[in-house]
Write a structure and sequence with these properties.
This protein is an alpha/beta fold. It contains twelve helices and 13 strands. 44% of the residues lie in helices and 19% in strands. The strands form five sheets. A four-stranded parallel beta sheet has the order 6-5-7-8, sandwiched between helices. Strand 2 and strand 3 form a beta hairpin. The longest helix is centred in the middle third of the chain and has 21 residues.
């Protein structure tokens, strides 16, 4: 097992927490017990993950005298909405859950975001634990305290920053992850190398085949380094006032794709992959990176089996959806661009003509 810490200090308040990464961690209750203020928890999962891992977790907790209630939600990004959130509230209220009842998110990014937002708002804040079961959630959405739901007019536009007490990333849960979901998680792993660590990007170029083949050592290395990078960034900018925005490389384009296609048609990581290619193409057109760098970026996403071409929509439709992005400031879109592989930047100064050319170049012909 490896442990990465997210260091969060506000005056005398210490909200730091560990991320435990390794095999067979789900039943290791010693990792969880120190973070439970009450011997009662509510486990939020979904119809896919629950049958696989819920019994294992509940049995382990019961062996330590921890009672648990089960809240099983429908699976899929299209259920990340207010209606599903209310199912959590209704269960918590019906079971008379208290302020010290810890909510445990057992699932992927959708479950983590929903459970975290419920924890932030139920009784104005209850303890929260992340047990992510997808690669994307283990390397990205479970770390950093972003929680929320989607709205038909925009992705993740309603939510709260609310940090977990602990994150337990059991890489054994990836054994049951569909190949498509695994590849979607790899998109976020590649992102970390692009924005922060050229040596990690080079390691990914050499080891992508091992990652896609689910080599345990390669996966744990990728998870650990991704969490280290995100932990560093979150510690420096918890509420996305500056450097944390760089984590959104490709997301302005990617969220537009998800919205346009309908939530869940493209997986988040697939949309981010195409979005990163669009951000890289835009960076090349702005003469920040060269054609060789762009080709390296395209190739690594191809090796991962991820899309490098965006779905075809009118440029005006992309513009409209991109303006719903959280990074819009005073009506202006902000773009995360690449200065080079391993270094990202934010810019407001993107001429509309170059943005239009980028969209046209990156969209499918059919």
């Amino acid at each position: 097992m490896q442990t990465v810490r997210v260091e969060l200090h506000s005056g005398d308040e210490d909200r730091s927490y560990p991320i435990h990464i390794g095999k067979g961690l789900l039943a290791q209750t010693d990792l969880l017990l120190p973070h439970l203020p009450q011997k009662r928890v509510a486990i939020v999962t979904n119809t896919t993950v629950g049958p696989l891992y819920l019994a294992l977790l509940r049995t382990a907790l019961e062996g330590q005298g921890i009672a648990s209630i089960e809240i099983t939600l429908p699976d899929g990004e299209d259920h990340k909405n207010g209606q599903t959130l209310n199912l959590i509230y209704e269960a918590l209220l019906a079971q008379r859950c208290e302020r010290k009842t810890t909510l445990i998110a057992l699932g992927g990014g959708v479950i983590g975001d929903l459970t975290g937002f419920a924890a932030a708002t139920y009784l104005r804040g209850v303890p929260f634990v992340q047990i992510p079961t997808t690669l994307l959630a283990q390397v990205d959405s479970s770390v950093g305290g972003k929680t929320g739901i989607n709205h038909p007019l925009g992705k993740n536009m309603i939510g709260a920053f609310y940090q977990p007490r602990v994150v337990i990333a059991d890489s054994d849960t990836l054994n049951t992850l569909p190949d498509r979901e695994l590849r979607a998680g790899i998109a976020e792993v590649i992102k970390y190398g692009l924005i922060r660590d050229v040596q990690f990007f080079e390691w990914l170029e050499l080891n992508m085949i091992r990652l896609v083949a689910r080599d345990p050592d390669a996966l744990n290395t990728a998870i650990r380094r991704s969490c280290e990078i995100k932990a560093e960034i979150v510690a420096a900018d918890e509420r996305e006032g500056g450097v944390r925005s760089l984590l959104n490389l490709g997301h302005t384009f990617g969220h537009a794709i998800e919205n346009a296609m309908g939530y869940g048609v493209w997986l988040h990581g697939e949309a981010v992959a195409a979005g990163i290619i669009m951000a890289a193409e835009l960076s090349r057109r702005l003469k920040l990176i060269n054609e060789y760098d762009l080709e390296r970026i395209r190739r690594i996403f191809q090796l991962a089996g991820l899309p490098i071409v965006a779905p075809k929509f009118l440029s005006e439709d992309y513009f409209s959806l991109m303006k719903l992005d959280k990074k819009v400031e005073e009506g202006r879109m902000r773009f995360i661009l690449l200065n080079k592989i391993g270094k990202a930047m934010m810019s407001h100064e993107v001429p509309t003509s170059i943005l239009t050319e980028t969209l046209v170049t990156c969209m499918a012909n059919e």
